[in-house]
Amino acid sequence: MTESLLLQNVRPLEGDRADVLVIDGVVKRVGAGLEAPGIRVVDGRNGILLPGLVDAHTHLDKTLWGRSWHRHSAGPTIQSRIADERRVRKALGYSPEEQSTNQVRQAITMGTTHIRTHVDIDTEIGLANLEGVLATRDRFREAIHLQVVAFPQSGLLVRPGTEALMAEAISMGADLVGGIDPSSMDRDPVRHLDTIFAIADRAGVGIDIHLHEPGMLGAFALELIAERTTALGMQGRVTVSHAFCLGMVDEAYLEHLTGLLIDNRIAIMTHGPGDIAFPPVRRLYEDGVTLGCGSDGIRDSWGPYGNADMLERAMLLAFRSGFRRDEDLELVLDIATGGGAQVMGLADYGIAPSCRADFTVVAGETRVEAIMNRASRIAVVQGGRVVAADGECLV
């Protein structure tokens, strides 16, 4: 359902004050003193108009948001965290639909209009998590745009039967094929990547692969990913999430890998991790690599961090990158908006005429001040419909 409205008294990207006329969910005009008799009027209170925030990487099925506090005890390795998550899931018996709903409503409240979520698929839980998240996607279809990645968290080849479940997940409505650490998780990077690319190619969908592998091991995987992207003509449809290796290799090798990313239009997602090297965002941004950022896990068994606020995530990414200048902080906000939109392949994203009316109005004098203050969200609009205002989710 799309709606019409006249959003008055806003400053697009902190520019001059203007009004925005939305007809049937699409921006028709942006200018001063607009009038539209009979159409709902919303006062933007001199706030900054931003395109909707984009969380390009999270895990809706894992979140414990909205539950009583969980005492974290997972170990330091990915495998130990996977094992601990299985224990917690059994102990708490939580519903993926209920938990994903909790995080989605929080994200809407904080101004996010688009989410790409990874959802666990394996031989123990089967497709139950996917079913829950798909139900949430359907319930909030008019309030937020969700893309779903079928994610083999526990490995693909090491759990026979997972490949068939992944293919079934796509047929059920997952939008992309996921993968994870093809060398360290499955011990067979060629076969792992051949498998996920084959599933995606047959279904005509994209890929978003978790790559935590460090240094040269991760760089080797990136080269294999680029090879398959070229061979199958999947340029512009592949994302590598985390890609810590890009922050670990030397300058010459980084230049080589950057060239592969650009030539194949492979996107990179980072969440600005706190304890490991990560992609050099300014360098990649200036070179023309598509960059998005995301919350990753939010208050789940893996860790206590996160609140679905992409302004805060932009601040954390800037902090971890050592950014201080306003122009650099504006860069990370662009990654959390337009960059994420490119990662998700959103063709009608923005605040110009003919764009879909998905945007967020935030308090503040400048965009950078809004990031630093994690400014209040005056209004959140999805398809011309006000879905949140002043810290309250309205859906």
Automatic annotation (TrEMBL):
The answer on whether this UniProt entry bears the keyword ATP-binding reads no
Keywords of the record, alphabetical order, are: Hydrolase, Metal-binding
Q: Which domain of life is it from?
A: Bacteria
Q: For the Amidohydrolase domain, which residue ranges apply?
A: 40-387
Pfam families, alphabetically? Amidohydro_3 (PF07969)
Q: Recall the GO molecular function terms of this protein's record.
A: deaminase activity; hydrolase activity, acting on carbon-nitrogen (but not peptide) bonds, in cyclic amidines; metal ion binding
Q: Does the keyword Hydrolase apply?
A: yes
Q: Which PANTHER family match?
A: BLL3847 PROTEIN (PTHR32027:SF9), CYTOSINE DEAMINASE (PTHR32027)
Q: Provide the protein name.
A: Cytosine/adenosine deaminase-related metal-dependent hydrolase
What organism is listed for this UniProt entry?
Answer: Halomonas stenophila
